[in-house]
Amino acid sequence: MKQLIIPDTLKVGEFYSNDQIKYSLEVANLGGIRPKIKNNELDFIVLITSVEETKNSVRNPYADKIEGDILTYTGSGLQGDQYISGVNKRIIEQKVKSVPILGFLKEGVNQYKFIGFLFLLRNYQDYQIDNQGNLRTVWLFEFQIFSKIPVLKIENFNDMFFPFYNQFKKEILPEDTIIDSLLSGNKEDNFILPKINEETLKSIETLKKKLLTINPYELEILIAKLIEHTGFNNVEVTKKSGDDGIDINALLQHRFSFDLNYQFQVKRWKHSVGRKEVANLRGSLGFNNFGVIISTSHFTSSAINEARGIGKSPINLIGVNNLYEIIKETKFTL
Question: Which residues form the ScoMcrA-like SRA domain (predicted)?
Answer without folding.
Answer: 59-144
